[in-house]
Amino acid sequence: MSQWNQVQQLEIKFLEQVDQFYDDNFPMEIRHLLAQWIENQDWEAASNNETMATILLQNLLIQLDEQLGRVSKEKNLLLIHNLKRIRKILQGKFHGNPMHVAVVISNCLREERRILAAANMPVQGPLEKSLQNSSVSERQRNVEHKVAAIKNSVQMTEQDTKYLEDLQDEFDYRYKTIQTMDQSDKNSAMMNQEVLTLQEMLNSLDFKRKEALSKMTQIIHETDLLMNNMLIEELQDWKRRQQIACIGGPLHNVLNQLQNCFTLLAESLFQLRRQLEKLEEQSTKMTYEGDPIPMQRTHMLERVTFLIYNLFKNSFVVERQPCMPTHPQRPLVLKTLIQFTVKLRLLIKLPELNYQVKVKASIDNNRRFVLCGTNVKAMSIEESSNGSLSVEFRHLQPKEMKSSAGGKGNEGCHMVTEELHSITFETQICLYGLTMDLETSSLPVVMISNVSQLPNAWASIIWYNVSTNDSQNLVFFNNPPPATLSQLLEVMSWQFSSSNSRHSINIC
Length: 508
Fold this sequence. Notes:
The protein is α+β, with helices and mostly antiparallel strands. Helices cover 58% and strands 13% of the residues. The chain has three domains: 3-121, Transcription Factor, Stat-4; 128-180 and 189-312, Glutathione S-transferase Yfyf (Class Pi), Chain A, domain 2 (Up-down Bundle), CATH 1.20.1050; 314-401 and 415-482, STAT transcription factor, DNA-binding domain (Immunoglobulin-like, Sandwich), CATH 2.60.40.
């Protein structure tokens, strides 16, 4: 069975990992259509041999032409269009640098082998076991259940708000009717009965207002507990798993489920906020002594607004950590003046935010490095194949600033591979009258100026991510804790598996 056929039989959580490293540099359509031919070529050798790489690129284009001829006979217009576009992209991008396409394809095949090995690895090491102990499946179901319950409760208070509006309109109509009655009629028994009816309606209105506010208070309390005790904890688990995945471990991708929960909660909170605004309008039109709305609404609105901000703040995440396309197995190691990619995602997917959220990337403020390239982009739903609200920076380059003494810059000088930096991302969201400034950061990265520093830099990345859950400890190496032997052996197993899927080191 071909490697590609094995990949296609993986569970969805592994297929999501495969999807992450196929892009315009090497489209998945080509991997699928030319699977057997691609696997029969020695791309790794070609990545270090320009003549061989040139021949392979020419043969790849010939293979594409043959596929074009086949699908043209089948009159598959969409596939014909895609293949022509892909051929044009490949020829334009790699014509002057054929070794690069060999590097890209070799890395993709190696990543497939790593994922296949991880999927077939029978024994878990201590790091994986520690993650499994905080198993997300049961808690995830509880989170989804509670989110659905909150959504349902908000729908019920929506009906309560509408009922209050109708009740108040009826009271207002009856009250105005009495005001227009003649003086003689106001002393009649009918008039007295109408006054009693109005009093009963007012009592009912007061009771319903208090009841609605009580229900809303309970929803706010339950949402607060859910966010801080379960949802944020679920997100932190994912971030820890992402740390482990960066050094070769398995990634249990639950972002789609988290996005669903974050989005439903945001929709519920915005709906609750509108309900509180409606109650204020009702109270402005008609109030009375002891009216609960003026006494409670302001504090409740502040709590809802805070929850919305907190939800958005936590929903802004780095979905794919900084990585040079030429070294996909060495994320978080960045070489100066070499492009890297990084992907951001907002877990609150609202159509109103499409193309409205601009994200700015920068490097930590020690003034030693700057980012060159397009560092401001808008998030869009179309940016991602899974329909998430995201943005991917593909053309950022770290550049070392000139020394304070002037003269030549520091590019090319020896860099300390235990010095950590982070890529910071900022955005401002304006939605439904709220303005929220959000910020998130990548995991710590190590800068290098020469590929000879890559092994030491990668060792620093492994040491950091094995040893700490803290995603922003840039002074970690001032007093680094020791890594245990079992942890290091487990990481070695992951690294070994990524380059040779036939063997793995089993850790007891």
